[in-house]
C-alpha cells in the first residue's frame, strides 16, 4: 500500500512540477490527431459520399444484363435496404411524324433513392404517371409536352421534361436522348423481347452496415457480366477528389502521429534522464527492481492514460467544432463513429509504450553506484533497441491507422532512410573537427566551439529539429500540390456546357455564332463511333473480358461498347504524351492511346489495333500514349487518329464552352438556331465539385494545423532537452564571470546554426520523401521546391535560435548555484 | 567467516577497472575489520580509492576479487537484488550532495526508506526524526526550499529512519559552512550513539575524522592504520 502511495505521491508532484506535461501533451496530440481527424474524415467522407451518391441515385447499384434472382432483392429488403429498379433499353419512338432513337429508363415507384430529377419547367409530380413519359432537353426540338409518342405498341403522352436524371451519368456521347417512364408500362410497349439488349440497374440505399453485409453476401454470387457499383467505381467527378483528400488526410495524420510520437520519445528520454539520480537513490535505499519498475511504469502508464483522455476529449470537441463548420456547406453525418475513438486510444497506448519503453528500460538499469559517481550512465542496453522499438511502434500505428501495407512501408522506409541520412550527414558535419577550449572571444566562436564539443547531443537535436521541419514541409507541400491539382482541373474559365451532335456543315456557323458572342470554346472535335475488334491480331473479346473479371480493373463502358474515336493533327491541350511521339504531318494508320486504357488492355507502343467502323475494318499502330485528365471539362478521347486514317468516315462534332455571364439567352438561342445540336449544361456539377474542393481544403488546413502543432511540440521538447545538456556548462561559465549577454547570444547562435543545418537537411529529406509519396501514393506530378532551399534554412535557424534564446533566458534567470547543483 | 561482533569485514578486497591504458588497480588487497557500534573514519587524498571502498562496503559496486562480510552476510556472494535487500535492512547513507528526492517533501524523504521496506508507521517515525534534527517546522518543505545545512539534516534523519546497523557517510559536511558542519556532525554522532549504529565515514576533514573512534588512511589503493 505504502509503495503505491509513494508512487502516487511522486506522480502528483511530477505532474505539478511540469515534468510529465510534455509527454502528456505529446501523447494527447497524437490521440487528438487520430481522433479528431478520424472523426472529421469519417463524417466528411459520409457527407461527401452522401453528396456523391446523388450521381448514382443510390448508395450502391447492381448492374446486370438480365433480371436478377428476386431472392437477392428480398435479402436486401430484409436487411432494411430500400430497393429501386431501373430498366434501360434503346428503342425507336415516333414523335409526331418523326422517328427518333431514344434511350428509355423505366423505373419503379421509389426511384430515385438519392438525389432528384432536375426539372425543366414544372414537373407534374415526382415521377411520370403510368401512361406518360418525361423527356430530356435534347428532344426539345422535336417534342412538346402533351404530345403523344409511340413507343413500340404503346401510346404514351409526354407530360414533362427534365434537364438531368440523378443517375443520368455524364456520357456526352450518348447519342440517344433519354425518356423516363414507369416500369409497369414496359410490358405494354412490347419492345422488350427475348434477346433484347437490356440493362437492369438495381439501386440500393440504407445503413452502411446493412450495405456492407449485403455487399459481402452478394459479391461472390455475381457473374462476370454483373457489376456492383459505388461512388468510387462509378467514375463520378467527385470520387477522385474524395479519394485523394482521404489519402492526404491519412498520410498527414500519420505524419502528425509520427511527429507527436517523436515528441513523446524526446520528452520520455528527458523525463527518464532526470530520474537517473532518483532511481540510483531508491536502489541505494534498498528498493527492489520490482519496486522501481512499478513506480515508473505506474507514472508512464498514468501519463499515457491522461494523454489518451485529454486527447480523446479535445479530439471530440474539435471534431464537433469542425463538423459544424463544414456542415454549413456539406451534408455531414450526424453521428460520431466509435472507430476513430478506439483508434485514438490505441494510438495513445502504442505510442505510450513504443516510445517510452527504451528510456524506461535505461532508467531501470541505473546502477545504485550513481549516488557516488554522478556521471555513471546506465549500461547493457544496445542503442539500436531504441530505434527498433520506435520503428515497431510506428509501423504498428501506421498499419492500425491506415490499414495499408503500402503506406506503412512508405512511412517505415522514409523513417529508416531519414535516420541513416541524418545520422550520416549530421555526424560528418558536426565532427568536422573537435575544438580545444571554449573560445569566449565572441558569441559566435563560443557557439561554434559548443557545437563541436557536444557533437553527440547535438546530433540528437539535429535529428529532432529536422524531423519536425521535414514532416511539416512535406505536409505543407502535399496540401499545396493537392489544392493546385484540383484548381488546375477546374481553373477559371472551365467549360460548363457541351455541344454534342454537331453535323459537319454546322461547324462554321456554330464557330461563328460563338465567336460573335465572344464565348471561349474548345476546338470542335470530330467524333466517329467504332469498336475495338483486335489487338495484335488477337480478337479483342478475350483480351478485354479477362479484365472484366477483375472488379478493380474494369474500365469505363466505352471500352467494351462502342467507342468515340477522333482524329486530329495537333496534340489536344492537357494531353501530355508520356511515351512515343505525336503524329508527324504524313502519318497514316497510327493511333495515340490514353495511357491508362493502354495499360488495362496491355497495349504499348508498336501494338497493332484493329477497329470496326460502320462495318469497315481499320488497322493502326500505337505510336504514342497520352495522359488524359478526365475531370477537365473538355472533350477527351481514348483513341486519337491522324486525319488521313479517319477521313473516309462521317463524323459528328463535339465542343465545350464556358457560358459567359450576362448572356442568359445564349443557350436558348443556340437551341433555336441549331435544333439538331444538343447542349448539355454541366455547370451544376462543376459548382458542386468546387464546393467540395473548398470544404476539403478547409479540412486540409486543419490537418496542417495539427501537424504544425505536433512539429512545434517536438521543437520545444528538443530545445528543452538541448538546454538541459548546456545547463551545467552555463552555470560554470556564469560562475566564472561570463556575461549573461554573451552566454545568451552564444546559445542563440548555437541554436541558430543547428536550426540552419536542420532546415537544410529537412529540405533535402522532404524533397526525397515527397518524390516517394507523390509517385507511390498520390500519383501527383513531382516538382522541386526551389524557394525552400533559400527560405527554409534561415527561417528555421531564426525560429530555433529564438526558441533557444527564450529557453536560455529562463535558465540564466536561475542562480549559478542552482544551475550547478541540481539537474533540471 | 566474520565474528558476531564484527559489523564489517573485508578480506583481500581488490577493485580493478579497465581503461584505455590498460587495467587500473584502485583497491589493492584491502583487509578491514569494523566492530559493531564502532565509528571509523577513512581519510586520504583524492583518487586514493576512499569512495570506491565505501561503494564496495555498501554493496553499491562489485569487487574484482576478495570477500566482504556485512552484518554477518557474505555481501560478495549476493546478486543486485540481494545487496539491495541487505541495504534496506541494515544500511543507511549520508552523501556530500545530500541526494534528496526533489519532488518529495522533507517528511516524505525521511519516510522513503521505511516505505520502500514496507514498514508501518513511516509517517510517525519520520516526524519524530525530523523533530530530533530540529526540522519539525520544515516537514512540508521541498529540498529546494531548504538550506544546505537543513537538507543534510533531512538526509541524516533519512539515514537513521530505518535504524540501520551500519551507516556510511561520504563527506557529509563537504558542502556545508563551518556552523552547519558542526551542527550536522553533532547530530550525526549523537544519533550514532543513541541508535548504536556502526559508522563508516569518508572525509578530507581531519577534525571530523578525529571525532571517530578509529581512523584509517587510504593511499594508492591500500589501507594504513593511523
From TrEMBL, chain A:
Primary site of residence: membrane
Subcellular location: Cell membrane
Domain ABC3 transporter permease C-terminal: 252-367, 703-813
Domain of life, per lineage: Bacteria
Transmembrane regions listed in the UniProt entry: 20-40, 248-268, 295-321, 341-361, 381-401, 407-430, 459-478, 696-717, 751-775, 787-806
Keyword Cell membrane: yes
Keyword terms of this UniProt record: Cell membrane, Membrane, Transmembrane, Transmembrane helix
Topology with respect to the bilayer: Multi-pass membrane protein
Protein name per the record: FtsX-like permease family protein
Gene source species: Ferrimonas gelatinilytica
Automatic annotation (TrEMBL), chain B:
Sections of the chain in a coiled coil: none
Any GO MF annotation of the entry: ATP binding
Keyword check for Nucleotide-binding: yes
Cross-referenced CDD domains: ABC_MJ0796_LolCDE_FtsE
Matches recorded under SUPFAM superfamilies: P-loop containing nucleoside triphosphate hydrolases
Keyword Ubl conjugation: no
Taxonomic superkingdom: Bacteria
Keywords of the record: ATP-binding, Nucleotide-binding, Transport
Annotated ABC transporter domain residues: 8-226
Matching PROSITE patterns: ABC_TRANSPORTER_1 (PS00211), ABC_TRANSPORTER_2 (PS50893)
PANTHER family hit by this protein: ABC TRANSPORTER ATP-BINDING PROTEIN MG467-RELATED, LIPOPROTEIN-RELEASING SYSTEM ATP-BINDING PROTEIN LOLD
Entry similarity comment: Belongs to the ABC transporter superfamily.
Protein name: ABC transporter ATP-binding protein
Organism for this UniProt entry: Ferrimonas gelatinilytica
Lineage, uppermost ranks: Bacteria, Pseudomonadati, Pseudomonadota, Gammaproteobacteria, Alteromonadales
